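hey m, so remember when u said the tokens were messed up on ur end? i reran from scratch. heres the input so u can diff it against urs
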Amino acid sequence: MARGRAPQYDEQRALILSQAARLFAQQGFMATSMNQVAEACGLSKAALYHYFRDKYALVAHIAETHVRQLLEVVMQAQAECTEPPALLGLLIQRFVREYASAQDAHRVLTEDVRFLAEEDRLRILGVEREVVSRFAQAMRALRPELGGRELDKPLAMLLFGMINWLFTWFKPGRGLDYEQLAPMVSDLFLHGMLDMGLPQPAALAPARRRAPRSTDTTRTPT
């Protein structure tokens, strides 16, 4: 008969992932050892291996869990709200708030996923693309002409450029926290997108005309 997990197994596993994400975010994946993770968790190295076989397994689990949580945030917002302006605003605010509690995991996703094997990296990239696609869909619902001009995904990426790197510069507690910042980011992007003019299609460059050959018969032949 298989022995069941101890009641604290999931709690201990969550602690390990949290501490590993913190170390990876602070030091980088390559500079962090399993010994450091074990010490941060108050575990022996042997006990740590009971939960994760190596630090590769840790970084893969952190990155994939985080990006799947972001997809879950999107799907839940879409289930709750269908009105285009309200939905896009809700998505932006929830993402900013999600990043507030997952800064370490987000840094692992953005900086350390490159160390993963191709199969794992592509699987995680597929989830990221689904997140971007759903944001682009919300933008098309608000401004349908974006889809025909293939501007929806570039705008989605511009939005992620605004919020993906908040952890590098935003320090809450200095007169502004994430709860206050979230609606500001939402209003800034939403109103900017609604008022934004669309670029004109690039005109075809005129064909370059070749200079005519010289017909000067006075040149001395060579």
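this time it looks ok to me. Residues 19 and 155 are 34 Å apart (CA to CA). if urs says something different then somethings off w ur setup not the seq
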